[in-house]
Amino acid sequence: MKRFDETSILFIEDDDADAQSVQQLLCINPKIHLTWVTSLAEGTQHSESSSFDLIITDLGLPDSKDVNVVEVLTRIWPTTPIIVLTGCHMKSLGRFAIHSGAQDYLEKGDLTRSTLAASMSYAMERHSLLQEIKQTCDELSYSNAQLKSAQSRLVQNEKLATIGHLAAGVAHEINNPLSFAKSNLGSLTKYVKNMSTFIDLQSQVVKSATDLEISKHQSNLKIDYILDDCPKLLQETIEGLERIQEIISNLKLFSREEVTKPSPTDINSCLGSTIQVALKNLQDKAEIKYDLAELPPVLCIPQQINQVFMNILLNAAQSIQGYGTITIKTWYDTAVNIRISDSGEGIPTEHLSHIFEPFYTLKQTGEGTGLGLSISHDIIQKHNGTIMVDTTVGLGTQFTITLPVQDS
Ligand SMILES: Nc1ncnc2c1ncn2[C@@H]1O[C@H](COP(=O)(O)OP(=O)(O)OP(=O)(O)O)[C@@H](O)[C@H]1O
Ligand SMILES: [Mg+2]
């Protein structure tokens, strides 16, 4: 018989004669310690008290039969190799047992010292190889998960950089014409004021004059109406330009390419600038309601926090069928809290645990990358905050973010 190091074997066999012959073959080796039991139940009683290097079992036991024996044993001792003993000409049962988790099978009629020794060493070797493969698979799937998450971060960083770059470029381009248009309008307003004073004076003269021709022109050209409407038009145009200026400054705030270090930030103004940028996508889908409290500054990277708000707001708008409501609430207790609620379709329970996973999307192909929430989760985690979701199918979803307030 092949020499084994100290080997502890659980041997399950109810037939006395078969048990005797196996024991005779094994006990010649003093390093083999055999625990013989006659039923599966008796064997499983050793599950807590003893650990075995190998299990040899009959498949026709009084309390269990065939592959069921293997299934029970592998459940209790998942890391112990198993050899099954079958009756003569029962090769198919043996192969079936291997599919269920056994490492080898031996027909009782073929039992000799050498076949048993070969089977034992083969079973233990095969089992340790399987364990190694399993460990390698586990390592591979862990690396794969890490790779996926790194890839998603890279994609998002790239996306962010592109958006930031575009936004900064557009803001710069618009800013110049905007400045001179606004300054020209300022001068025009003064000119119109002077001209209207002058025309007023002329009107006095025209009224007292007998030349009806001038008076007729004044009426045909609607000079009185124009003089009345001019200041209103100019005022409206100035307000329009001021609005564009505000949007541009929000866009700049949103993109802030240069800011990669945390700085004390007003979360309400982050929300404001993000909503401004996303307004086109939001206002067609929902009324936006605000319930904003005074907040202390949060030490954070505002560009990243904006990105989180953007992802959540876009998801909220996309979840609303028809027209609904998005409510934004902020408050401060021991930390700064932001809650974005929507009246959308909600998230079914079976999907809820996956929504923060990279590439998990329920949207049509091409509509979502499934990265928004995984990136948001990552960003909030890096800011030592939390992000939680509460949802009811048919009623809506709310995301609550908590960000700690630290000394800057
Ligand atoms: N407010 C919400 N209401 C309903 N479902 C939501 C909501 N927010 C997220 N989900 C679900 O979670 C999934 C994952 O969201 P996530 O933002 O990560 O990816 P996405 O929106 O599908 O794609 P991406 O944001 O990358 O364009 C979404 O596909 C959607 O099914
Ligand atoms: Mg999304």
Report on the structure:
The protein is an alpha/beta fold and 408 residues long. Among the domains are: 105 residues, Rossmann fold; 150 residues, Histidine kinase-like ATPase, C-terminal domain (Heat Shock Protein 90), CATH 3.30.565.10. The protein is built from eleven helices and 14 strands. The protein has a five-stranded parallel sheet, sandwiched between helices. Helix 5 packs antiparallel against helix 7, helix 8 packs parallel to helix 9 and helix 9 packs antiparallel against helix 11. The chain is rod-shaped. The mean pLDDT is 85. Adenosine-5'-triphosphate binds next to helix 9 and helix 11.
Task: Give a quick precis of the structure.
Helices cover 55% and strands 18% of the residues. It is of the alpha/beta class and 408 residues long.
